Recover the amino acids of this structure.
C-alpha cells in the first residue's frame, strides 16, 4: 500500500511530539517549487500537530522565495531581516529576496541564513548576508546561537558547491554559534567544523504537491 507523502510527515511529527521537543527546525525544501496554496497547506498541516511548540523555517533550493514570503513568512515566526540587504533588493524576478530571521527560543538564538539559489543545487551566501550575520553575532545570546540554513558547509558529497565553506571557521571571539542545522545532502551527516557542530538532516517526504 502506498502512502501519500503527507502521511509520512504527519507520522514523523506525531512521533517527535511524543518526546516533548522544545522546537521544530525545518531546514529547507518545505515544498517542491510550489505556490502560495502549497505553503499554506504545509504550514497548516505542521501547526495542527506541533502547536504550541515553536517552529523555525529555512528555505532550500526547491523553495520559491516570493511565494513563501507572500504566504508563509508572516506566520513563520521570527523577525524577517530582508530590509538589511540592499544588494538583494535589486534582484529581479523570478528570484525573491533572501529569507533570514531571528528567533529567541528558550534562551537560544536561532538565526536563519538563506543559502539557496532557486532551482540550483549550489549554495551561496552573499556579502550582505555575511555582513548581517557578523553584526548579529556581536551581541551574544543568553545560551548561544544556533545557525539554520539549507546547504552544509562541509559534506562528503560532491554534487554541489558552496561559496561560504569557511564561514564557521571564523576565529572571532564574539562568535557564539555552537550548532549549524542544515539539510540538502539527502542523507544524515554530523561533523565538527572548528568549534561548531554541523548536523545535516535526512530528507523526509513533505506536502510538496497535493
Amino acid at each position: 500500500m502506498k502512502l501519500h507523502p503527507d502521511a509520512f510527515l504527519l507520522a514523523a511529527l506525531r512521533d517527535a511530539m511524543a518526546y516533548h521537543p522544545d522546537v521544530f527546525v525545518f531546514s529547507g525544501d518545505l515544498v517542491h517549487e510550489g505556490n502560495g496554496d502549497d505553503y499554506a497547506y504545509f504550514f497548516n498541516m505542521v501547526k495542527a500537530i506541533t502547536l504550541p511548540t515553536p517552529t523555525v523555517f529555512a528555505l532550500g533550493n526547491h523553495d520559491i522565495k516570493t511565494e513563501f514570503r507572500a504566504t508563509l513568512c508572516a506566520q513563520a515566526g521570527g523577525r524577517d531581516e530582508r530590509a538589511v540587504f540592499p544588494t538583494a533588493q535589486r534582484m529581479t524576478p523570478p528570484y525573491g529576496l533572501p529569507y533570514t530571521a531571528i528567533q529567541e527560543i528558550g534562551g537560544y538564538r536561532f538565526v536563519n541564513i538563506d543559502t539557496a539559489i532557486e532551482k540550483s543545487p549550489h549554495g551561496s551566501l552573499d556579502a550582505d548576508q555575511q555582513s548581517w550575520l557578523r553584526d548579529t553575532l556581536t551581541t551574544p545570546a543568553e545560551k548561544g546561537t544556533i545557525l539554520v540554513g539549507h546547504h552544509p558547509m562541509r559534506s562528503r558529497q560532491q554534487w554541489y558547491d558552496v561559496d561560504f565553506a569557511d564561514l564557521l571557521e571564523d576565529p572571532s571571539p564574539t562568535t557564539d554559534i555552537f550548532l549549524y542545522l542544515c539539510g540538502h545532502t539527502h542523507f544524515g551527516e554530523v561533523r565538527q567544523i572548528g568549534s561548531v557542530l554541523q548536523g545535516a538532516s535526512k530528507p523526509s517526504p513533505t506536502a510538496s504537491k497535493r
